[in-house]
Design a protein that fits this description.
Layout (H helix, E strand, L loop, with lengths): L1 H45 L3 H9 L5 H26 L8 H7 L27 H15 L1
Helix pairs in contact: 1-3, 2-3
Length: 147
């Protein structure tokens, strides 16, 4: 009987500790992030980009199904703009000195002359044109609207 009581008390203590950690993390980290995202989203909706304004202007001239698609697309644009705005607010991380960076890379990928091996799996993933990803997103949204 004492063992069962001790296990129940221990389980209660563990649950209370977990709830305390959850509450602290929510109060200290999650709530401020949610508030910042909400504020940025409100700012984006108050100051929509020209693409969003154009889509809003088209809504009265299309059918109901297309209006729903336009509304979804506008929501996606707001989300993208919110993420971009939040990304701009993140302070740049302190950069490691070149010696620290060189020490953090495995010695097999650094040649004696200081030249690094290129990771062939990563080649081609970086956009060549900074606007290419935005252009791709606009084309994708237009294709979805045309369906």
């Amino acid at each position: 009987m004492n063992e069962i009581l001790a296990k129940n008390l221990m389980q209660t203590d563990v649950n209370q500790a977990a709830q305390l950690v959850r509450s602290m993390l929510t109060e200290k980290y999650i709530s401020p992030i949610q508030k910042a995202v909400s504020n940025e989203n409100k700012r984006v909706k108050k100051n929509p980009c020209k693409n969003t304004r154009l889509l809003e202007a088209l809504k009265p001239f299309v059918g109901r199904d297309a209006q729903h698609s336009l509304t979804s697309t506008i929501d996606i644009l707001h989300t993208i703009q919110t993420i971009q705005g939040m990304t701009k607010q993140i302070p740049p991380q302190s950069l490691a000195t070149s010696e620290q960076a060189r020490d953090s890379i495995s010695t097999n990928s650094v040649h004696p002359d200081g030249i690094y091996d290129i990771d062939s799996a990563c080649v081609g993933f970086a956009p060549q044109n900074p606007n290419s990803s935005q252009n791709f997103m606009m084309m994708l949204m237009l294709m979805l609207l045309m369906r």
